[in-house]
Recover the amino acids of this structure.
């Protein structure tokens, strides 16, 4: 089998935009294969942050002075950009948070306080990240509600038939990821949304990985909530988004209190601000949130057909190499290659994931080992951890080849 | 009475005399001070325009198919702005107002000279005036 | 009365460290008097952020690769620095959050879920920021608990005698600010802590303003919780700290779920990580939190005796000018000048605060007008808002003098 | 049997032979592979060392006033490290161990060559060995 290297030029152009990629570790060129954990930041994001800090660095919304006005524009125009990027119906449906985890916890609390009662049911899947499990467990514990779990099959696919039969009159919310950070499989989220809605049940989609690799059209997909982090999509850390349909957000109690999330504060009774302020308590992340603008621009660029084609060729190469090797067990086996992103978690017979990661690190390759904040899917496969590589469009075929060679060397040291 | 177009042009002409923000502000303050007294009894929550930093009240009556606005604010510059608006739109028919694009606001540089929060207030004021007109078109 | 200008040189040296201060607005030099809203960032903080983003930009703790290891060091050594800065008994008592508001909401939820029951009482003061009122109101509403309020006297001082008599057997927590962001008066926090503890009641101190102007020794003051924001003390926005005594933090339920705040995640039951991870759900603010290190260094520098003396001379000048003017009503009138920080909220007879702020803005001066997220204290004085100036050690006597002149001009335009 | 000091010096000498991380890792892997089998029954939660990334179990028995350690890990490099530690400390008296400063770890560059999370694991291992010794000093 032969894998063509497309667009060699372009990937080098893209790499040049990310200063961190030119680092050396232990004197070797960095091969950054931990993008699912956090992406690198392009110079445009770095420049934006610097510009914000050296210029319109002011607390927003309420002040009338020039810096505050500029800062407000920077922040609010970012909301418009995000709205366009995910195609939200209105800007009020875009809430800024500190990340996916915060977005999901917001919904778990606010939706939970408003709609969840003893005996109600919430459904998650077996392949969720802890951030899309623990908030629901905590909610269920508090409200004496029941958490149900969609199982995945041996290949890592959600068992939708079982899912269809899990609904009862008490099922109040479903929380399922668009793409698992362990399996790298693209869930059929539109179908899942349809199943939920045909059961009159809203759904939260965890878009932490999905926003990077698939993007989202929240009106087309029609999910009720969508959560993602800035830092995984090239923006500064500490930024995040919650999309929510107005009909829910308007009814939901606020999560955090304080700052401008109020209309009037009286000791006799406080009333809350309208959307989106109601859910943005405290001083906003004035310096970092607007870096979502250049980050989104970068994400759009990464969706370029040629860039995608190159990235897919790297993915196909890795998929082939990792499935062809009898010592390797891949978790998340796609039925068609386009159902998988360039993210591979696997186990090597006789070699512990952590030993592999340590040795690969010394060869300059940043991989992740362990449970990847998704212990239930580890238990599902009966392993204590996996080794994961997760690529971005700035990763090259050469890096992938170097990785495969290095992996072989590491295995030979250990087995 | 001036036509709507004439009234708008008069405002544009007035403002174009001033290059300096200081003069523009003084002009607005003057407008604010000269606004007709607004009855305390009309300072109701219903008449309060949402989305302004300072409190702005807008009331109206309809006579002979024309809308007559009255307004007040506790901040004088805001009061000047609402005064300017009702000076242009008071005494017009609902249809006239409803079909207007309020674009002259941009021509006098009011939006740039005021903050977006304040500009938002301006937008809220315009929206309220429009809503009143539409309400009375039926 | 004559105010000596000390250390003219030094303040210019300090200014040179803050790039944002050299901006012009409307062609005039920026006079930034809105420091209580957010401080400006020194070049050292900007450099640190850039270094973090271009170098050790990786998800921390769990990964073994080089970048992650460096990033973990950066993050965890920041915890050590904060521990030293506030003199916490142990590093596990330092929790990183996204700001004061998040810190207080964390306690409101976690302390609330663990200890607050129907009929219990929580005490706050009349001069608190919304962020130290609304979370408690929301908690009280959820738990059917009672919120009690310490009144302030005409000068803005807490009525401690009334406070002493407010305790009952059901009083479970007191939440009082170290320095009010409206009044600028330094509350006798040690005495307040003693009153609480002699009633066997823990206390949360809102240090959002206090950390900047007073600093804190949490062991000496002995407060049970202490919250502050990075952005007000020269660090990047989106950063914050919660200090909490181990005895509480260990017992308290976690607030947000997800990420590494767990020990084991099982659908049959999840166990939580030990401190501090238990309270740090989701990807940490890997790029911004370590900017607290250079920020703390800057804050230490600002505590220099000479710098303080100069700053006090500016404060004394402003205090004198504002109290000498019969048209001006100052809120928060100190009994001794050292009981007030360089923060002045006031009303001008016949001139609306917002009009003043708009005119001052055009003169290049950034002030704040309105309720300053503290509506109850506005109601206390029967005003719809105030005009506030809040200075930092990089503000000069010349700026103060220019402000007084400009204020006079603005008043004459309006009255 | 070597004295404690001799045993530590031997480890330092062994490691100083290798300049390259590759060789050091191979040495640790070798140590790990040669560690005596650890009974499955002893892989209890009680014997699990907290704070390590991979699972590490440490057990011991006391005979004639000396502590004999046994250990295991599912990761081979970690196993090499714990093997190295118990190679030095097994068969010592509780007092000897309790008074040791474990400083030789720094001399062999193990801390720098491993991550802090891993180093934390190392610290946890050392702490556990110390705790066992102290327990048996009483
Ligand atoms: C006294 C006080 N408490 C709390 C806060 C809230 O801080 P943040 O908005 O950074 O969360 C502020 C800042 O506005 C404050 O001044
Ligand atoms: C699928 C998924 N969900 C949620 C999260 C949590 O995101 P964050 O840590 O940025 O809050 C992650 C990232 O680790 C993820 O991959």
């Amino acid at each position: 089998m032969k894998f063509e290297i497309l667009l060699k030029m372009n990937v080098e152009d893209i790499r040049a935009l990310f200063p961190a990629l030119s680092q050396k570790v232990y004197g070797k060129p960095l091969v950054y294969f931990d993008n699912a954990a956090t992406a690198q930041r392009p110079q445009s994001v770095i420049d934006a942050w610097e510009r914000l800090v050296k210029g319109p660095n002011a607390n927003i919304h309420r002040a009338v002075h020039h810096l505050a006005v500029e800062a407000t524009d920077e922040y609010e125009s970012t909301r418009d950009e995000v709205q366009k990027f995910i195609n939200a119906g209105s800007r009020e449906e875009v809430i800024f948070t500190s990340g996916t985890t915060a977005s999901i916890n917001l919904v778990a609390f606010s939706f939970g306080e408003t709609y969840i009662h003893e005996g109600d049911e919430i459904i998650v899947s077996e392949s969720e990240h802890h951030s899309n499990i623990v908030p629901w467990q905590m909610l269920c514990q508090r409200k004496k509600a029941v958490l149900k779990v969609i199982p995945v099959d041996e290949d890592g696919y959600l068992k939708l038939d079982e899912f269809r039969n899990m609904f009862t009159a008490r099922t109040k919310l479903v929380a399922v990821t668009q793409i698992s950070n362990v399996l790298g499989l693209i869930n059929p989220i539109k179908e899942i949304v349809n199943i939920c809605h045909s059961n009159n049940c809203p759904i939260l989609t965890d878009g932490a990985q999905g926003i990077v690799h698939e993007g989202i059209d929240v009106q087309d997909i029609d999910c009720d909530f969508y959560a993602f982090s800035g830092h995984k999509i090239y923006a500064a850390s500490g930024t995040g988004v919650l999309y929510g349909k107005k009909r829910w957000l308007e009814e939901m109690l606020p999560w955090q209190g304080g700052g401008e999330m109020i209309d009037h504060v009286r000791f006799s009774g406080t009333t809350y601000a309208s959307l989106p302020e109601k859910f943005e308590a405290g001083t906003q992340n004035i310096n970092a949130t607007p870096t979502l603008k250049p980050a989104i621009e970068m994400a759009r660029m990464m969706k370029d057909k040629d860039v995608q084609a190159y990235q897919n060729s790297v993915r196909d190469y890795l998929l082939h190499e990792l499935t062809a090797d009898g010592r390797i067990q891949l978790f998340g086996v796609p039925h068609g290659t386009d159902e998988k992103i360039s993210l591979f978690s696997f186990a090597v017979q006789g070699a512990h994931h952590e030993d592999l990661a340590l040795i690969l690190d010394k060869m300059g390759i940043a991989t992740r080992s362990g449970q990847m904040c998704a212990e239930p899917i580890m238990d599902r496969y009966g392993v204590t951890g996996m080794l994961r590589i997760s690529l971005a469009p700035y990763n090259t075929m050469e890096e992938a080849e170097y990785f495969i060679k290095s992996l072989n060397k590491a295995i030979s040291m250990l087995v | 009475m001036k036509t709507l177009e004439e009234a708008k042009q008069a405002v544009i002409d007035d403002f174009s005399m001033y290059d300096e923000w200081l003069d523009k502000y003084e002009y607005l303050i003057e407008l604010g001070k000269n606004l007709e007294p607004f009855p305390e009894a009309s300072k109701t929550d219903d008449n309060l325009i949402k989305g302004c930093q300072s409190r702005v009240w807008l009331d109206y009556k309809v006579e002979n198919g024309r809308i007559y606005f009255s307004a007040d604010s506790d901040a004088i510059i805001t009061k000047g702005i609402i005064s300017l608006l009702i000076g242009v739109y008071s005494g017009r028919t609902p249809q006239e107002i409803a079909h207007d694009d309020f674009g002259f606001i941009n021509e006098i540089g009011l939006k740039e000279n005021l903050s977006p929060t304040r500009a938002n207030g301006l937008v809220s004021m315009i929206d309220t005036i429009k809503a009143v007109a539409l309400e009375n078109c039926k």
